[in-house]
Amino acid sequence: MLDLQDLLQYINHFGYLALFFCLWLGIIGMPIPDEMIVMSGGFVSSIGILNPVIAFLLTYLGVVSGLSLGYFLGRTVGVRILDTIKKKSKVMYIDKSHQMIEKYREYALVISYFIPVVRHIVPYIVGINKMSFRSYAIYSYSTGFVWTVLYFTLGSLFGENIEAIVELSTKYGLIVGLIIFVIIFVHTFRNNKRRINR
């Protein structure tokens, strides 16, 4: 697996395209956690290497296009995709994804964003199950936007702690996502309050 320094060098060399393609290729097993890529985009934008608006847009497009590729592969190739994933010793994640979809239906697309590996498998399964693209896009793209905002902002604010945050995100998924949301909300609220009081 590539470490943070390798990723930052890659971004420094290839710029915006590195953010897009690293996330787009994540669906087929790019050896970098998505959270690390998104936070790195926020970090390099905060120190002036990339324009934050362009970096965010390319990052978001990389996230949703990568997961959409999984959805379309599920619809067209079907269960052969899951057989390939099983060969990579990810049976546990496939079972977890099935259980989540059975229990939460479309909302599994929302929850899965905050669970590494599962976020990549759920689009395959809903594609195999022939979920309409409209339903897939509504749930996946809107959640993807919020998820990207959370981690991109976190990278901007706490870029020196990216690896520690990724480790926590990998272990605690949803809980970390909620904590991140609260931290960013409080930080934004305090900044706005200070501006008003000036």
Keywords:
198 residues, globular, 11 helices, mainly alpha
Explain what the structure shows:
- This protein is mainly α and 198 residues long.
- The chain contains eleven helices and no strands.
- It has helices at residues 4-14, 16-24, 34-46, 52-77, 79-87, 91-104, 108-112, 118-128, 133-158, 162-172, 174-197.
- The chain is globular and about 55 Å long.
- The chain starts with a helix and ends with a helix.
- The relative contact order is 0.13.
Put the structure in a nutshell:
By secondary structure, the chain is mostly helical. Helix content is 80%, strand content 0%. It has eleven helices and no strands.
Please tell me how large the radius of gyration is: 17 Å
Number of strands: 0
The major pleated sheet works out as: none
| Gross geometry | globular
Q: Specify the structural class.
A: mainly alpha
Number of helices: 11
Euclidean distance between termini CA atoms: 47 Å
| Poorly predicted spans | none
β-sheet strand percentage:
under 5%
Report the oligomer.
single chain
Order of helices and strands: HHHHHHHHHHH
Question: What portion of residues is helical?
Answer: over 70%
Whole-number mean pLDDT: 83
